[in-house]
Amino acid sequence: MKEFLxxxxxxxxxxTRVGRSIFRVGLPQSNxxxxxxxxxxxxxxxxxxxxxxxxxxxSYSFGLGLISLYLFLILTFTGVLLMFYYVPSTDHAYxxxxxxxxxVSAGLIMRNMHRWAAHxxxxxxxxxxxxxxxxxxxxxPREFNWVLGVGLFLLTLxxxxxxxxxxxxxxxxxxxxxGTNIAAYxxxxxxxxxxxxxxxxxxxxxxxxxxxxxxxxxxxAIAGFLIAxxxxxxxxxxxxxxxxxxxxxxxxxxxxxxxxxxxxxLMELARGTTPQVGRNPEDEVFAWPxxxxxxxxxxxxxxxxxxxxxxxxxAPLEELANxxxxxxxxxxxxxxxxxxxxxxxxxxxxGVVVPxxxxxxxxLLPYLDHNRKGVGRWFARDRVVANTIFTVCLVIAIVLxxxxxxxxxxxxxxxxxxxxxxxxxxxx
Amino acid sequence: xxxIAPDKHVSRRGFFELTLGWIAAMFAVCASAVxxxxxxxxxxxxxxxxxxxxxxxxxxxxxxxTFLEEERVFLVRQGNTFRCxxxxxxxxxxxxxxxxxxxxxxCHGSVFDDQGGVKSGPAPxxxxxxxxxxxxxxxxxxxxxxxxxxxxxxxx
Lengths: 428, 156
Ligand code: HEM
Ligand code: FES
Prior knowledge:
The complex is a heterodimer. By secondary structure, chain A is an all-alpha fold. In chain A, helix 7 (93-102) packs across helix 8 (107-134), helix 9 (143-165) crosses helix 10 and helix 15 (337-343) packs across helix 16 (347-368). Mean pLDDT of chain A is 86; it is low at 271-275. Chain A has a two-stranded antiparallel sheet. Chain A is built from 17 helices and two strands. Chain B is α+β, with helices and mostly antiparallel strands. Chain B folds into two domains: 9-46; 51-155, Rieske [2Fe-2S] iron-sulphur domain (Rieske Iron-sulfur Protein, 3-layer Sandwich), CATH 2.102.10. Helices cover 19% and strands 31% of the residues of chain B. Chain B contains one helix and eleven strands. In chain B, a hairpin with a 2-residue loop joins strand 5 and strand 6 (102-104). The longest helix of chain B is centred in the N-terminal third of the chain and has 29 residues, at 12-40. Chain B starts with 11 loop residues before the first helix and ends with a strand. The relative contact order of chain B is 0.15. Chains A and B meet through helix 10 and helix 11 of A and strand 5 of B.
């Protein structure tokens, strides 16, 4: 059978002198070349040459971490494009949004993609965290990767929140006013924290440029770095977590247990602390093409989904920011509405104590949980206590968010979404 | 002796070098951190001044409560007394509206009476009153740096 034409062209190119200088190993034909292809390419060598079959099962990880990564990449790409037009000034920012909507070619699509990918990223990072929790994947030796994950979760929220101000419309202005005032309730440093965040006493030009700097460079740089470490650790921790039956990691050798009088080769040392990826050859398949193909397919799906949303739904843009008239009700971004709901009962408890305790609990979780059973299976019986506690917290958070988002009308009074809000009379 | 393993006995000189080295390094790190944080605290604000002239006393009719947009305050006149009330909700910083006898925050529904006291809602403190004086050119001068009790008036 004749080969597919593009493939033949590619194979010809690989054999030319230029081709060989770029790709040391061409399209792999043998198992040896499959392994070589993985280790000889910068992008591929972050992944193992062989992966455990269990890790490839879509129903185990649902690819949620990968989806988060892809959303981050889409956000970086569209975000850099938006930067070519955006001006972080209270006089121009809003007009730029209008230009993007009506003047710039594909500006609307880029803005929409950026906005929807940002919302999706918050959702998928959360789902990824739930997956990791319910499969007990944060247990030894992956404790620290969970901690890195908590950092990434907070960064994701921070990125979303700082980006929220940039369009300089009513939504932006009041969400940031409310959000930074929640921060001001933190004990001791609260008011100073707010002052430094805003670069003044109220949301204005100084705040806009600060949020801009955080949004386009500080937070993405930190997040990009942490994502790299996070994914590298997934591999160094022995690939995805899996149950013992799936041919698990060889017993871990601690470096401290090795005799120190001998000279070691680099590979021996590298192996010393890391559990080795499943030894049993039947449990493993080559990453090329099994893993690579799935990764590319998922990437395509994510891009297609974001594009679909961006084509059919426009990112909201309200009126120009007006410091005098808050919209009624003034709401924070949706992922903070659970907090805002709590804050409407008590700013200190809802805004400081509850989120503070939650974040602390998340960070410490892998070190507090001494139960070593139930890794690598969804909702393992051995973890019924941990799973119940987590689920209760999760459900409360979701219910509060839904109440804050849908059931709060003018004056933050109870308002069923299917009823029309009563007319509010205002006078000055 | 193993040439790579460090000598376990630290000489006096080595001890000083080590301590000084560490102190210098910590100092450098802390000083940079302090400098960076201090850098972020603005020294000059390009916001409307906290001290401002609200206008001539005659501009405000007797018994009126006037909202000054730019400054986000209410100017309250009763007879020949003048006071100035902050329009910034003490809960999360929304601008409150005047309603009938008091004030109402649209964001989370805090209700304040006409003295700024909290009647209901999540606001933890009463709205703030600011010091009002008369400037040399007979204008009402409000100083938002100076908070006063609700019973302090400028009497003309
Ligand atoms: C920007 C956000 C994040 C990105 C891009 C990301 C990316 C990834 C990727 C690509 C994987 C490989 C497995 C998979 O696709 O599911 C992974 C695994 C993992 N992630 Fe994340 N992640 C993020 C946030 C988090 C969060 C919020 C947590 C938890 C608090 C977390 C904890 C973990 C752990 C413990 C693993 C290992 C799971 C296992 O071995 O089964 N990550 N992450
Ligand atoms: S900001 Fe006024 S009630 Fe929340």
